[in-house]
Amino acid sequence: MPIHDQSYRHYGGSRQPAARAWLVIARSGIKQFLRRRPMIGILFGSWIQLMVRLAMFYVAESYTQAQALLGPSAQTFRQFLEQQNFFVFLIAVYVGSGLIAQDRKANALQIYLSKPLTRVDYIAGKMTILATYLLFVTWLPAMLLLIGQILLSGSLEFARANLILFPAITVFAFIEVFIVCCAVLALSSLTTSTRYVAVMFAGVMFFTEAIYGTLRMVTGSTAVSWVSFTASLAQVGDAIFRQPLRYTTPVAVSFIVLAALVAVSLSVLERRVRGVEVVS
Amino acid sequence: MSVATDQPPVPTAPVATAPGPGVISERPRPDAAVSLEGLTVQYGTNRALADVSAVFPLGAVGLLGPNGAGKSTMIKSLLGFITPAKGRMKVLGLDVTTSPQEIRSRVGYMPENDGHIPGMNAVSFVAYCGELSGLPAVDAMQRAHEVLYYVGLGEARYREIGTYSTGMKQRIKLAQALVHDPDLLFLDEPTNGMDPKGRDEMLELIRDLGHNKGVSLILSSHLLPDVEFTCDHLVVLDKGRIATSGRIGELKGPAGSVFELRIKGDSDAFVAVLQANGLECHATDEDVMRVFVPGGKTARDVFALASQHGVQVRHLRASVPTLEDVFAKAVGQE
Predict the structure, then answer these.
(1) How far is B293 from chain A (nearest CA, A)?
(2) Is residue A133 pLDDT above 50, yes or no?
């Protein structure tokens, strides 16, 4: 006679509303990546610039001669976020490329979508995983840099003079993260290979930049910067930080290009994230 | 603070906590597991289900049909994966169009193809599925351990699913479908690719669930013995239409109306004679034919016909009708 009944038993406990499913997906995905050493390495590396910048602020505060060279300005924060783009790319490729592709490869979509969650929940959960890590290398260190500047200087003078920085960092970081998330997830839903996704995303980033470079040489104008994803993002970023615009393309055009990219990505996700693939 | 862990649970009584705010706990008992009204599903110009109307009672129901009959399409439509061209579907009394999530919280789906969530071991995967179905993390982990023991994967529950054999993958699919204690299970070809021993064990599990554990189930299969062993009711699909449905015992009819017949003489000609006289006849393996004798006629009529046509009857035995007869008759009539 068995000591414990290991037969099937009915569940008499509580059940949570289905609306929390995206949170379950997000929590599990975030934990899964945190267990990987390369991920820890990327996250650690992404904060080196923050440390260096804080050290520069410290020097600038300690030695007035260095103030002009190393002191903070609104442009410093714009540059900071721009230089973090390397880590945005790394995380987009490392975390994002497999988020849907691997589920498609393992036929997991039919498992997910047979549970009480919608396709929107699924995409929101996957997007939250990627967005969390992207914000960890963009918004969070940028805000800490700003707070660090206030603490190191011991005054709110700089922050008061540049009040735009808090919303600018937040708005730009969230726009960038949202666009990257949409693009990577859409690419990830197109294939079952994470490598192809990485190659395709690199293509979107670098190929469009190369096209822009060629067109600029031919036309002699930067007005064609809208063909490049990174140039359009940079143009919108400059406008948000109220910095001089680097291209002659109207900001509205750059913004429309980014919005179109998001629309195309969401359309791809709508078509590809399904419980069953019907080929007619 | 409660935290879900991969550690084995201390066996306890079934989890029963008081529902908190925003917690779903009421589960009304419906009249039928599934009801379909004029369901039509089309893939391009190909009609997979054509104006299907049927009621699947609570209990164990077999959805039988040859490959391509529309079984999987029906299940996927019921889960909301496929939008039908027309018709209405109700699962556990809930309309599939208006309450898909509520339905999916009360059903478990074991898909036909291999399917798992990458990068997880069995217990994490099943617990994760439980959480996705609305179970709190701690309860989901405890249920995961329990159902993995139940399906026979207790010892292998910490292994990566990618390393599992085909039979084990079938079992893990059943476990993920069971973890949230569904009222209704959709099992799509659950014995696919299993060896004979594993197949028998899987069928025992399904039979136990349907008959002893109070879980209603719809078993989609093209394997007649699987359905006959596990189910009480039957719906036969053929070319996207319902060929027949009812209780298996009733569909089989009374013993003795089917005969195994072996003759000496021209079998083809005698089959034609039998059919011309209203006796349905199917040749089976070797030289044995199966004769369906309709009401009002007996074995004497078979002897009389044989005598009239100079055919020697070597063997005539009343046969216990099998599901194969029901299936052959249903599909043959179409």
Answers:
(1) 44
(2) yes
Backbone angles phi, psi at B314, to 5 degrees: -95, -25
B46 touches chain A (CB under 8 A): yes
Q: Give the integer Cα–Cα distance in Å for B176 and B129.
A: 6
Residue B67, domain member (yes or no): yes
Q: Which residues of B are less than 8 Å from A113 in CB distance?
A: 79-81
DSSP string over A151-183: HHHTSSHHHHHTTTHHHHHHHHHHHHHHHHHHH
Task: Give the pLDDT confidence score for residue A259 in this predicted structure.
Answer: 97
Q: What is the mean pLDDT of residues A137-154?
A: 95
ipTM of predicted complex: 0.89
Domain-embedded: residue B258: yes
Task: Give the separation between CA B295 and CA B99, rounded to whole angstroms.
Answer: 46
CB pairs below 8 Å between A and B: how many? Answer: 153
Confidence band for A86, pLDDT divided at 50, 70 and 90 = very high
Q: Which of B15, B114, B178 sits opposite A107 (nearest CB)?
A: B114
CB contact under 8 A, B76 and A276: yes
A172-186 residue pLDDT tens: 999 999 999 999 999
Residue contact A115–B129, C-beta within 8 A: yes
Output the CA torsion sign for B202, B207, B208, B209: positive
Domain stops at, among B220, B249, B278: B249
> Measuring CA to CA, which residue among A16, A178, A13 is closest to residue A88?
A178
Among B93, B132, B203, smallest CA distance to A24 is for B132
CA distance B255 to A99: 58
- Closest CB to A111: pick one of B22, B146, B176: B176
Tell me how far apart the alpha carbons of residues A5 and A72 are, in angstroms, rounded to a whole number. Answer: 68
Both B236 and B269 in one domain: the answer is: no
According to the model, what pLDDT value does residue A64 have?
Answer: 84
Looking at B249, B275, B307, the residue that finishes a domain is B249
pLDDT digits (tens, 9 = 90+) for B210-224: 999 999 999 999 888
Q: Residue A106 and residue B113: Cβ atoms within 8 Å?
A: no
Q: Which amino acid is at B266?
A: D
pTM of the full structure: 0.84
pLDDT at A49: 96
Helices (H), chain B: 71-78, 100-106, 122-132, 137-150, 166-178, 196-211, 224-230, 248-252, 267-276, 299-308, 323-333
- B152 Rama sector, left if φ>0, alpha if ψ -120 to 50, beta otherwise: left
Spell out which residues of chain B touch residue A124, defining contact as CB-CB under 8 Å: none
Cβ contact A169:A84 at 8 Å = no
- The answer on B260 and B227 residing in a single domain is no
Report which of B225, B209, B279, B221 is spatially closest to residue B63, judged by C-alpha positions.
B221
- Residue-wise pLDDT for A101-111, tens only, equals 999 999 999 99
Determine the average pLDDT of the residues in B65-76.
91
Of A189-193, A255-259, B314-318, B324-328, the one with minimum mean pLDDT is B324-328
Taking an 8 Å cut-off on Cβ atoms, the answer to whether B131 and A107 are in contact is: no
The enclosing domain of B54 has a CATH number of: 3.40.50.300
Check residue B328 and give its pLDDT: 73
